[in-house]
Amino acid sequence: xxxxxxxxxxxxxxxxxxxxxxxxxxxxxxxxxxxxxxxxxxxxxxxxxxxxxxxxxxxxxxxxxxxxxxxxxxxxxxxxxxxxxxxxxxxxxxxxxxxxxxxxxxxxxxxxxxxxxxxxxxxxxxxxxxxxxxxxxxxxxxxxxxxxxxxxxxxxxxxxxxxxxxxxxxxxxxxxxxxxxxxxxxxxxxxxxxxxxxxxxxxxxxxxxxxxxxxxxxxxxxxxxxxxxxxxxxxxxxxxxxxxxxxxxxxxxxxxxxxxxxxxxxxxxxxxxxxxxxxxxxxxxxxxxxxxxxxxxxxxxxxxxxxxxxxxxxxxxxx
Length: 319
Prior knowledge:
Blueprint: E1 3-4, E2 16-17, E3 20-21, H1 26-38, E4 44-46, E5 52-54, E6 63-65, E7 72-74, H2 79-85, E8 97-101, H3 106-116, E9 118-119, H4 131-136, H5 142-145, E10 150-155, E11 162-166, E12 183-190, E13 192-193, H6 196-213, H7 233-239, E14 246-247, E15 250-252, E16 260-262, H8 268-286, E17 295-297, H9 302-309
Parallel strand pairs: 3-6, 4-6, 5-17
Antiparallel strand pairs: 1-2, 7-8, 8-12, 9-13, 10-11, 10-12, 14-15, 15-16
């Protein structure tokens, strides 16, 4: 039975998929990946669908969602996970180690750690995605900041094997964590003790600031373009006159020009047309090349995607 993909991404856009899989544990996820690989089938792994555009023509490959793999707890409260990490963590540190699975909403992690007075992830507050996506994208640079205090539970893309590796093993940068194709199914974070009142206040302030600057009340995928070196994509799009530009139900936000909103009934074609317009306008006005931050899943015109992903040295989103 076909699944309507509009309910599986924050943009509320897309056609249908014939197979959507919801593993309930890291082990089930590992087995699913291994089984699909054994069958020689391509697949896509998603968290909460906050950074993707599905094609209006649908998706042929299986979609594996991690949304039901979403535990968040202190490591000392999880005997099985304590065994998984073994002697990686000194006993005296375990009271400040938080184990969180990839499908957990970021809001769950930030509220949980704030209530305990554990600091280090407040910068993530207000992001609508999953912890797994935040790790893979090094959201707000938090993985880089915590690289010596984080351990990743990774699943091999080849055979589904599970391993624990220190985050410091990976090369991190702007919007990337250098996972070399592996899937992060859980992460262990060693955070700093702090006052619960202070951590809660920082979470509230971060959310308030983002609400003032970003159109969080309307369906979107967050920022659609990476920031080119030395610039902000939103500022370039604003100066190029993109705010308020519309195609069908899709429109560039008046609050933040790097957000394309689904104002009602938008299609993937509407979004693509606006992205092409924004990229072309910025190139013509300022000689800068914007590169998409979002992932495209399904059937799209190859020429359109090739144009959108075209980059120039120094303008490929590296900071």
